[in-house]
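Consider the following input, taken from an annotated entry for SRP54-type proteins GTP-binding domain-containing protein (Capsella rubella).
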Amino acid sequence: MAFDELRGRLGRSFEKMRETSKMDEMMLNSFLKEITCTLLDADFPKLALTEIERQSQDIINLPASSNKGKLIYEIILTELVSKLDPGRSALFLVKSEPSIVMFIGLRGVGTTKTCAKYARYHRKKGFRPALVCADTFNTNAFFRLKKVAKYEVPVYGSYTTDPAELAAEGIAKFKNEKRDLIIVDTSDRHQQYSTLFEEMRLLSESMNPDLIVYVMDSSIGQAAFDQAQAFKQSFTRGVVIVANINCNSKSCGAISAVAAAKCPMILTETGEKNSEEFEAFEAKPFVRRLLEQEKMRRYTTIMESMTDEGIVDDQNIFFSFFKLINISYVFGRA
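Applying the prediction step yields:
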């Protein structure tokens, strides 16, 4: 299911609910089932949806005088934060001593493009980045890296066949040139993460990087858990970049899977026409930004003073919340 279809299904469901002048228990149950099924189709964690349904049912069964809208809002907020919390943040580099960052990824996930974009991003932040092509498997790897770097960041490459030796040459060169961020791009020839991690673990031992970045495409959804867990076990100084979050309806599944593996992560896009932004993922601000856009802030104010006399207010709050579940807001500013 494409992400636009996901938004459309959610939007249609809540539009119907908003237009209903009066809603009884049966209608609310039907509404919750429709929404949770849609989110399940989008690869959202089943455990979170089950818990939301269970707790929402408890709220529905409360006396009529209860503030059901506010209570259900709090349930949704708490469950989303809980299931999307990786436990620790992916802190960005600070300018001090030269930092060495090693990028790794499976074939086809866009590691080289993300690597170059990461360099350009830090250049705009005041760093003096440089790129080292340590991919000795692909014959055009050096030229490809120079192209995606858009000639804005210097790139080192040579005919050396040993990736460890090539990386050492490039790192030494850029340290002499007083570059404060040296980013090493590696081979993406592997299709299995187990063989990739084994090869890259040996390479990292020779490089001793300050940070190892594993690029993962969000289209794999909850299947990201095994990769994230294996990555965390293989590298102690690692962070996962989850790419293409806007293009895939399984983005929530991938984010929750990486969070379940307790891997710090960064969200971004890939491709020439996409925004060159990176955001260290933190569950609570992320969820609050989804919930509390300008329209939702108004409904939050309503909830604070809402009584059960206005059942339509409850419906509007539900509608507004799910109308705002759009991964593209991750790059918005509250």
